[in-house]
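F.,

This is the one I mentioned.
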């Protein structure tokens, strides 16, 4: 299977949650002192889908939402961003949509995530089997889908169906401890998902977590690239990233900005990176466009609303002094 051929179809099935984000206004305000809140669509998978659509891709989300006003808000937001919500279905009862409150500030930043009885964890095998994977070029998901049942089994079934249809699997590890029953379960399940994926994106802590220690993270990323994955991106925050592809290791820097908040960078990186590959760009160029997208988002309020389109990304690249020098990392 040619991973890039599937991506270049520019049609993605994205598995995972959509939620509601709330952030105090104006920027810099604390949650406990909030009087006004900005409301926006959230959820890693939904953010990635929205980011891809802004770059001209087609994206369809597969998840469950609560059968209430918040769930309907999420579906309407997906439509507003141009994300197909055909496979976003409501679940009745006491299951509720993911809700995130986060502050638009870096110092003393607080994020409060409500995931009790999460509706998206009710995604079932029937939900993923209702998708016609032959209509897409690649499957994308983030690690949260594996944190609880029945979503975990359903997500692994989606991997099977995507593989049978010849789709490459793109996996953002996106480890969120609060969603998992234990670190050990998370380590085992995320490692299994990583071994089934063609493209893996994660930060140094997440690779280290999968390997059983942060000092082992780089070796874990390298091992996956040498065995099962075609492309592995090992992100290191302000130190940049190391990309493993085509038997080569390439280190890249970041675009420095005055960050308004720490949230949204990973989702935006994924959207920009995959969009770059879909456009046929060289690997290094695609990684740097993902890095630029991450820089743009952390410098603005909101996550999905802050994600750039092609014109905005090109304008940023044309006016920014350029990325930092790659950092030499041993390991």
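My design for it:
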């Amino acid at each position: 299977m040619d991973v890039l051929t599937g991506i270049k179809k520019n049609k993605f099935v994205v598995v995972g949650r959509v939620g509601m984000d709330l952030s105090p206004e104006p920027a810099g305000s604390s949650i406990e002192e909030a009087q006004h809140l900005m409301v926006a669509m959230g959820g890693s998978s939904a953010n990635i889908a929205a980011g891809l659509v802004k770059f001209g891709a087609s994206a369809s989300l597969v998840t469950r939402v609560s059968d209430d006003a918040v769930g309907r808000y999420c579906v309407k937001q997906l439509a507003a961003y141009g994300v197909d919500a055909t496979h976003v279905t409501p679940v009745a009862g006491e299951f509720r949509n993911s809700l995130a409150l986060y502050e638009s500030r870096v110092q003393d930043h607080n994020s409060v995530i409500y995931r009790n009885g999460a509706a998206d964890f009710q995604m079932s095998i029937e939900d993923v089997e209702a998708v016609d994977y032959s209509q897409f070029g690649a499957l994308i998901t983030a690690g949260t889908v594996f944190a609880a049942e029945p979503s975990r089994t359903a997500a692994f079934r989606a991997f099977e169906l995507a593989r049978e249809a010849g789709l490459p699997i793109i996996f953002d590890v996106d480890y969120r401890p609060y969603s998992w029953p234990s670190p050990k379960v998370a380590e085992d399940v995320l490692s299994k998902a990583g071994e089934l994926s063609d493209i893996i994106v994660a930060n140094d802590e997440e690779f280290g977590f999968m390997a059983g220690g942060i000092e082992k993270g780089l070796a874990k990323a390298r091992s996956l690239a040498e065995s099962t994955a075609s492309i592995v991106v090992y992100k290191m925050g302000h130190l940049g990233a190391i990309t493993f592809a085509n038997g080569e290791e390439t280190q890249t820097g970041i675009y420095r900005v005055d960050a308004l908040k720490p949230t949204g960078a990973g989702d935006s990186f994924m959207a920009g990176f995959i969009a770059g590959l879909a456009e046929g760009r060289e690997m290094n160029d695609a990684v740097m466009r993902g890095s630029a997208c991450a820089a743009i988002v952390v410098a603005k309020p909101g996550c999905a609303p802050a994600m750039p389109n092609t014109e905005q990304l090109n304008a940023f690249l044309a006016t920014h002094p350029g990325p930092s020098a790659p950092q030499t990392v041993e390991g």
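The mean pLDDT is 96.

Talk soon.
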